[in-house]
Amino acid sequence: MSEINIYHFHYGHSVTNVARMAEVAGERFDIGQRVPEVSGEAFDLLTWYANWLALIEAEEGETLSEQPSMLKAEAADTFEATIPWNQLELAAVLFEKDGKPLGRNGPIRLYVPDGSSKCLNVKSIVTIRIGSEALSSVKDEASYGFKQTFSKDELFKK
Questions:
Q1: Which of 10, 83, 137, 156 has its CA 20 to 30 A from that of 116?
Q2: Element (H, E) at 73
Q3: Tell me: the pLDDT tens digits for 80-132?
Q4: How many domains does the chain have?
């Protein structure tokens, strides 16, 4: 099962997988409820985040008062989208189609209807970064495209 890296502005790096994300999110729904032209099983991104954060806070014995200001979704093909947190109200994570993992568009796909674009979506997500205002230059608009800069380690990765 594919790993998904989560980087949080306060709690750092953790690794999860699709099954665990869906379990933490709880309720599943047909993505067509939010994105009519798409089919498959999804979970609500903000519900997942609230439940995930509650688990982390319980482990750490502290409650985080600062709210995120942005989410950055990074795909396996170097496509990435940075989305202001206030545009994620209807964001959904597609993780199954016809009862099976997504396959070539997986492990997960993020849909953000009614944000600063009609329906921003990012397929093949392998990394999620959750940032705060202090770490972010995100304004009111989502930005997206293929990654333009690479580290030395990324260039020599096999």
A1: 10
A2: strand 70-75
A3: 999 999 999 999 999 999 999 998 889 999 999 976 566 689 999 999 999 98
A4: 1
Phi, psi of 31 (to 5 degrees): -55, -25
Helix H or strand E segment including 16: strand 12-17
Dist CA 32 CA 53 (whole Å): 27
Is residue 17 packed enough to be buried (19+ CB in 10 Å), middle (13-18) or exposed (0-12)?
middle
| CA gap 26, 67 in Å, rounded | 21
What does 119-157 look like in DSSP terms, one character per residue?
EEEEEEEEEEEEE-GGG----SS-EEEE-----HHHHT-
Task: Tell the burial category of 139 from Cβ atoms under 10 Å away from its Cβ (0-12, 13-18, 19+).
Answer: exposed
Are 81 and 143 in contact by the 8 Å Cβ rule? The answer is yes
**Tens digits of per-residue pLDDT, 137-158?**
556 778 888 866 555 665 566 5
Residue ranges making up the domain that contains 66: 3-155
**Run of H or E residues at 52:** helix 45-60
Amino acid at 49: Y
DSSP classification of residue 1: -
CA distances from 57 to 60, 65, 132 (A): 5, 11, 17
